[in-house]
Structure formats: C-alpha cells, structure tokens
Amino acid sequence: MDGLKSYLDIVKECDNFPYKTDNPSLYNSYLKNYYAFKVARIPRPFTFPDGWVVDHERQELILAPALDDNLTESEKAREKARRRTSLMDSTLKTMSTTSTHPEFTSLARKWRDETFPIYTTTTKPKTLLLEIERSASALFGILTSGVQLTAYTTDPATNELKIWVARRSRRKQTYAGMLDSAAAGGLETRMVPLEGIVREAVEEASLDEGVVRRGLKCVGALSYYHVMSPSPSSSSPNKARDAKLEEVGFLQPETEYIYELHLDSDTRPKPGDSEVEEFYLWSVEELKAALLRGEFKLNSAIVVIDFFVRHGVITAENERDYVEIVCRLHRRL
Amino acid sequence: MDGLKSYLDIVKECDNFPYKTDNPSLYNSYLKNYYAFKVARIPRPFTFPDGWVVDHERQELILAPALDDNLTESEKAREKARRRTSLMDSTLKTMSTTSTHPEFTSLARKWRDETFPIYTTTTKPKTLLLEIERSASALFGILTSGVQLTAYTTDPATNELKIWVARRSRRKQTYAGMLDSAAAGGLETRMVPLEGIVREAVEEASLDEGVVRRGLKCVGALSYYHVMSPSPSSSSPNKARDAKLEEVGFLQPETEYIYELHLDSDTRPKPGDSEVEEFYLWSVEELKAALLRGEFKLNSAIVVIDFFVRHGVITAENERDYVEIVCRLHRRL
C-alpha cells in the first residue's frame, strides 16, 4: 500500500451511512441507534409540559409546543414555526449549561448564533418547520445544505487547466489546516444558494462581486449521508479531522450546491477573512495528488471528484468504479 | 395545463420503478411480479435436464448448465460463461418458434444478432457471466449500458450555445421519428464506452474519427430504473413510443455513459446510416421547448436535462425540484 486513497475510498468516507440494499442488517444496526425527529401537527394531549415528547417504543422525538388557538390558519403556520424555533433554542441553551453529556456541554463553546432551516419533506412547496442553531443541527441529524465554488483558470501559455485551492486556517474549529474549495459555506435560514455562494466568494476569497455574478455557473448538486466517525483516515499522516469524540455517531445528511467560476489568468483569490490561510493555483495533477493523499476536507474532496468527472479527468476508461462513484455523489436522501 | 412537462416529469418517466423509501407497498407490489435471474455457482442436483431451474417460492429463475469436470479453474470460468451463453441462446431461439407468448413470438422479428454482456455485481473486478441476445435482455431485466453524445458548438457571431439534435428515422423499430442525441447506442459485449461512442459518432453522424477522438470528453454517467409502460405520455400529441403491448412491465435498469463534443461552427453532423433522418442545430431555448413538449426519446431526454444541469441552464434558482432531479439522474442500481 502506498497510503493513497482511491476516488471511491474518498466518496465512501463522505457518504458513509450504510445502504439498506447492500447490507440490510448493518443498515438496521445503524438505524436502531437513532430516534426520528418529528414535529407534531397539533399539540398532543400527552405533550410534556416543556413541549417535548419522547416515544421510546417508536424511537421518536417529537417537538410539539402548545399553541394559542386564537389565530388564523396563515398566522398559525408562522406562529408554529416561531414557537418551535424558540422552544428548540431555549432547550439547547438550557441543556448546554445543565446537562453533563459532552454533546450538550460542548454546545456553549461551539455556539455560532446562525440558524439552519428545517423544512417539511413531503409538502410542495416545502415550508419552514423551525430553525435550529447551526452547531446543534448534527445532534438531530438535520438535512443541511451548503454551497461550494470551484474557481479555475486556463494557463494562457499552455492552455492547461489550473484550479484554485484554499488552505483552511489552522485556527478553524473544523478541519483546521486542510485543503478546501475556493469558497464554501453552509446555507443559513432564508439564504438561497446563489446568494450564499456570492457572499462566500466575496468574503472568503476577496473576489469582486461583479466578476463573481457574471462568471458564476451552477453546475449540479452533490448529496450524501455522513455519519461522524472518530478518525476517517487514520492511515494517513495528514489525518482528516472529522468528529470530536462527543460527536461520534452524529448524522449529517447534506446537499451541496455546486458552482464553477472560470477566472481570467490575472485574477487571484486572496484570503478575505479568517477562514482561509492561503490560496494555491494547481494543475490537475497537483490537485489529484493532494486529493488522493487525503488532504482535503471530506465534503470538499468530493467536490473535486465531481469536478474531475465533469471535466473528463476521471473517465469511464481510467476509473473502474466510475458509475458507483457518480451515483454515490448523488445519494437520494 | 399547457400540455408541457416539467423536467422532473421527464426524469420520472424514465426512472419509473418505485423507490422503496417513498412507498414500500407500491415497491413490493412491483417486486412480486418479478423473479430474480440467477446463475448457479455449480451445477445443482435438482437442475432440470435443460439447465434451467425455476424456484417459484423464492421467485428465482436459475441458469445452471452442466459442466465438464475435467477443466482447470481458469478454463472453468470461461467455459461456464460459454455454456450459459449457448444455453441462453438456444433457449431463446426455441422459445421464439415454439412459445405462444407474445414476448417470445416477437423475438424472431426483433432479433439483432448482437449480444449484451451480463456481469457479476459483487466481485471485483466484475467478470462476465454470460452474453444474451440484445433484443431479449429486457425479458430478464438485465442491467444494460449505453453511450450518448451531446455535440454542440458556439455561434461565432453571438457566442451563443447551439446544440446538435438528431431526428430518428421514421423506420426505426423504437421511438421512430422522435428526437435524439447526436449519437448514441447500446454497449455490446466487449465494447468499452469510449470505443462505443466513437463508433456511433462516426457511423450515425458521419463525424471524422480524428475530430471525435481529439474533442471527446467523458462528463458523467446517468443511471435509472425503467419499467416499460404502454403510453408514458398519452397527454402529448407527440406521444413517445415506449413499449409494445408484449413488453409492458419489462424492466430496464440502465447506465448511460455521457460524452460531450464541442464542434467548430463549420463542422456539421450528417446522417451516416439508416438511424438518423436529419440533424438540427438548436439554441438552448429551442431545445428546451422540444424537450418539454415530450419530443425526445426517453433516455435521450434525460441526457438533455443532464446537459442543462452541467451547463447552468437548469439551476438551483430556476428549478424547484433541482436536487431531486439531479439525484434521480444517478440512481444507484
């Protein structure tokens, strides 16, 4: 073994919740560790005083705040979301100070004061059920969304493709010092993907907003089901930081909206906030080598793989797991 | 209703085998109509004289020809594949003349004398189990592979993207007169995707082989699980020809390897064999209109949708079902 990963290894590290069709008993052994998180349609008679219901038999955790009945139907939906958000917020704050469980005590330190939205999955259009503090979303296995930008250029002398790669700040809480996309971020409540990626590109990479808006291309979405594990790549010296011990087993189903930006050869991204330490302009070969050494943040690694697929670097001819890779980059959640 | 489909409608017409997670009882009602097709590892004691075993209880159909024991291990694998291929071939030929079932009697007319390969799904590398006559593969629900080429150009005056679209011959057995990719075809036994698409581009679109090989880019793979239905788009005047009555219910899980070719504005594909009647050079808007009117062959329609996703025509902003569409274009089979 040369310590290098295969592309499929990388995809599997990211999309690592088992598939039922591959191994039903493994899948079920995972499932039995989790409770479904639900919100009740109406306040239920057996609601606990604080609005939470735990049903151990059905493995369900239900959020059902009491509701004022003197409301119109349209007020009700918004009021329900507000109540749930407020109940979730106060519960998390209380737990972070009173609980002795490390997943709660660590919340105070990780608290970001940004919320992720939780939507209905079965209605069209989807409606907002509640908002949850960003750092707590993994506690509930909430489906989160993010945006990722691959910025690249064409070498004027050689016509060669060159890709901008970010080195994450060594002071970041997560994946410190690892490699990353030119810009990326989570989609907070009420943020649409396009505005999210424009903001990240301007803030993290100091790119001109006009340049970004004119050149930006939406080129797909990746989705995967990640379970946090203590050390996803212990074989590698450049060990990926995945979960702290208190987070092991947390579920992170995630959708990433993928954008591309072809830059002029004289436009250079520069670190704009404390997120990025440095930008590199790499050839496909340099990028591939760093990727297979495991130096990328997990969900940015699969963005590189998707870029390689779309640009004909990874092909049906040179990659034996081609179809499996392409399908697992797009898991239906 | 204006009679136009949505992009998701089109994807769902193609990927139309139900998902277990969406509706377990519908999924199971589909499953009970099918028998698993298996090949036995070793000749089994209860093998019928003709090498076929039908196990009604387990819903299994097993192909297990007797094997000469005086063979080395490496000879055995190849010999087994040869025996199974030969048994399958003679069974199909016999059935096509002696059976009164329309799915068999129609075989003689549809016989193409090209075979599709059937591989192991669990071993790495995959090995060939047997070959099956192309026109009979849907009888067994065999996973087939194909190649599709989108040829496009950039208008030198306006810099606008223009896409080459083929009109299928009105004399073709399947999807006669409908719109199609610039070149496409099924992957026969021992044909790799790249060679398959080069051959189709040269034969069907009369493109120069050198031009094709230099410009061709492998940009992904689509996969879907199709069940043949009598009229997938009865609401449309340009009704897609899907299954003949004798084929209703046939399973067609399929993987399509996707290629792109950017052509100079003075290179024009021309019908090269009897497959294509005419080529059109269309703007994105013209292509989109024809697509949503349901004028494309089903699995070429999703190639257009995938092209639109990769080229930023369909985006996270303008398409509410964006993530669902992208995931269902890449069903894990």
From TrEMBL, chains A, B:
Gene3D superfamilies noted in UniProt: Nucleoside Triphosphate Pyrophosphohydrolase
Domain of life according to the entry: Eukaryota
One Pfam entry name: DUF4743
Chain positions covered by the region annotation Disordered: 80-99
Domain Nudix hydrolase span(s) in chain numbering: 142-306
Biased composition (Polar residues): 87-99
PANTHER family to which the protein is assigned, alphabetical: NUDIX HYDROLASE DOMAIN-CONTAINING PROTEIN, THIAMIN PYROPHOSPHOKINASE
Protein's name in the database: Nudix hydrolase domain-containing protein
